[in-house]
Amino acid sequence: LSPGAKMGCFTFIKVMMILFNLAIFLGGGALLGVGIWVKVDGESFLNIFGALSSSVLQVVNVAYLLIVIGAILVVIGFLGCYGAQKESKCLLMMFFSVVLIIFIVEVAAAVVALVFTGLAETLLTGLVTPLLKENYGVDPAFTEIWNVTMTEVRCCGLNNYTDFDDSYFYKKYHSYPRQCFGLSPPLAILTHVCLLQGCFPQILEEIRTNAGVAGGVAAGIAALEIAAMAVSMYLYCRLDKK
């Protein structure tokens, strides 16, 4: 290619890099705002998006999850957009490094999820079970999220009803949440109805059922990350020749 064509290609890729990362920055800002909203006024969020309560995200604290993801996207978007606009090698390298780290973490998480499901369950249990014991019945938003999840998925706790043993809720009411029973607690006890199984096995089964869709989305995200790293490195290398 002639020098003019190369410069035109560089300019086009630079503009696309700016626009792409501007969209990431704005999207991250939106997620960050929603996360703060959920944290401050979770009940209103549930009233509007209650239909989403059976998703996997309801197993963890949605507010903190959205805040963390939003903050990461804001940082990535800023580094990519501002680095390309200012033609800063330092910012472009930081962008490349951050995306590479995220890509490696995602690959590692996928390997753990696919190969070491038992380990993933153990780690998740170690994180979520203490939250159930401490916050269920105390934090209204957290309690509502779990109530809706257990009702819609027809499950009890993360692993099973024993997740509520020695919890604040059990100590106060001397019973498990009513969602843990196929019937209301008094009738369930009288008819010897067993407590429902945990939410994790059912969510895991749902993930396996939709593994194709999840895999496609993951592959798409991975492709975007690889493309972003390639473009940032192209711009980084081209700056040496300008």
From TrEMBL:
Transmembrane stretches, start-end: 12-38, 58-79, 91-116, 213-237
Keyword DNA damage (UniProt): no
Subcellular location: Lysosome membrane; Membrane
Principal subcellular localisation of the protein: membrane
Keywords: Glycoprotein, Lysosome, Membrane, Transmembrane, Transmembrane helix
Top-rank lineage group of the source organism: Eukaryota
GO CC annotations, alphabetized: lysosomal membrane; plasma membrane
SUPFAM superfamilies per record: Tetraspanin (SSF48652)
UniProt key word Transmembrane: yes
UniProt-listed PANTHER family: TETRASPANIN, TETRASPANIN-1
Protein task: Structural component of specialized membrane microdomains known as tetraspanin-enriched microdomains (TERMs), which act as platforms for receptor clustering and signaling. Participates thereby in diverse biological functions such as cell signal transduction, adhesion, migration and protein trafficking. Regulates neuronal differentiation in response to NGF by facilitating NGF-mediated activation of NTRK1/TRKA receptor tyrosine kinase and subsequent downstream signaling pathways. Plays a role in the inhibition of TNFalpha-induced apoptosis.
Similarity field: Belongs to the tetraspanin (TM4SF) family.
Record protein name field: Tetraspanin
Species per Swiss-Prot/TrEMBL record: Rhabdornis inornatus
Organism placement in taxonomy: Eukaryota, Metazoa, Chordata, Craniata, Vertebrata
Name of the gene this protein is made from: Tspan1
